[in-house]
Amino acid sequence: MTSLDDLPIRDDLRGKSPYGAPQQAVPVALNVNENTHPIPEAVAHDIVARVAAAILGLNRYPDREFTELRTALAGYLGHGLAPEQIWAANGSNEVLQHVLQAFGGPGRAALGFAPTYSMYSLLASGTGTAWIGAPRDADYELSPETAVSAVREHDPDVVLLCAPNNPTGTPLSLETIEAVADAANGIVVVDEAYHEFADEGTVSALSLLPGRPRLLVSRTMSKAFAFAGARVGYLAGDPAAIDALRLVRLPYHLSALTQAAALGALAHSGQMLAMVDEIRAQRERITTELARMGFRPYRSGSNFVLFGGVDDPHAVFAALLERGILIREIGLPGSLRVTAGTEAETTAFLEAIAVFAPVHAG
Ligand SMILES: *Cc1c(COP(=O)(O)O)cnc(C)c1O
User: Fold this and answer.
1) From the CA of 220, how far away is ligand 1's center (Å)?
2) Is residue 9 part of a domain?
3) 228-281, pLDDT tens digit by residue?
4) Are residues 321 and 204 in the same domain?
5) Which residue pairs, CB below 8 angstroms and at least 24 apart, start in 119-125?
6) Is 33:302 a contact under the CB 8 Å cutoff?
7) Domain carrying residue 301
8) Whose CA is nearest to atom 4 of ligand 1?
9) Which parts of the chain have pLDDT scores under 70?
C-alpha cells in the first residue's frame, strides 16, 4: 500500500499533520466553538429563496468582485468602511491564507503568540512561510511590552494577533494591538473571529485602521453569525492591501451560492446575532460554575472557556464523550476547552464535569 512517505511531497510538508478537530455525531457538540443555536427559520427561508434565484444563473461565473457582498459587509462593519476596503473568502481561514500568500511565502516569516489558533502555523506551512510562536505573559495575557519586544526581535513579515485568542479566550487590549501595529514593519492581521462575543464596550481594531495601511482586521460569519457551514470569512483594510489579495485568490473563488447565502444572512444580521447575548451569559455561567467547582477558568472574551486544574484532561475528555458531550483537548497541560452551548447543553456539560471537580461541595 502506498503511504504519504512514498510520494514526492514537498520536503517542508513531510511529517506534518492536517487540522484535525474530531468530527463526531454526538448529542452535545461543544468542541469547535460553533454557535450551537440553529439559524432562525424565517431567515433560512429568505436564504433559500436567494440561493434558489442564484441557481438559475449558475451557467455563468459569479461576480468575481462580489461587489454586493463587499457592500453589505462594509455596511455591517460600519466604522465608515467602503466596499473597496473589504475582502471575503470561503471562511476566514481562506482570507488568512490569501494574506500569507501575498505577504508571506518562502524566505519570509509570520509571528503569533503561542498558544494561539492552530490554523496559523498550518497556513504558514502550506504557504512556505516560516512560523514563529512567541511567548505570552502569565495566564496567556499579552501586554504591549511583551508583544512589541517579540516583534522587534524577529521583525516578521506578518504578525497574527488573535483577539480574543483561541484556544485561551484571552481578550487582547486595543493598547497591545496599537503598539504592535506601530512597531511592526510587516503586515499586522487582527483576527476578530469572536468579536461579537466580547464584553460591552470592547472597541474593535477596525477603529485603528485609518492611517495604518498595513493593518488588516479579519472577521468570520462562522461563530456569532451561526453560519459555519456556509464558509464565509472577511477582512477590512486599506484598498491597496485588498489589491494584493486579488493577486493570489483563485478567480471566482466565492461561488454564486455562497454570495447569495451570505447576502441573505447579512440582510437579517439582527436576527442572526440574536443569540449572542444568551451565549455570552452561558459563557459567564460556565466560568462561574467551573471556578466554584475548583477548576481554573481563564478570562474569556469569546464563546468558549479554557480551564485548568484538570488532573487528567484526556480521562475527563473521554468520560464526557462517553456521555455524549464532546469538548476539546487542546494539548495544554491540565487544561480543557469548552464552547458555550445552549442553556441545556451547558447544563449537561456542567453536570458531567462536576464529577471531576477538584473541590467537592459539602
Ligand atoms: C473559528 C476561527 C476562525 C474562523 O474560521 P472560518 O474559516 O471563518 O470558519 C478564525 N480564527 C479563529 C481564531 C477561529 O477560532
Assistant:
1) 6
2) no
3) 999 999 999 999 999 999 999 999 999 999 999 999 999 999 999 999 999 999
4) no
5) 119/19, 119/93, 120/96, 120/160, 120/162, 122/16, 122/18, 122/19, 123/93, 123/96, 123/97, 124/100, 125/12, 125/13, 125/16
6) yes
7) 21-37+275-361
8) 92
9) 360-362
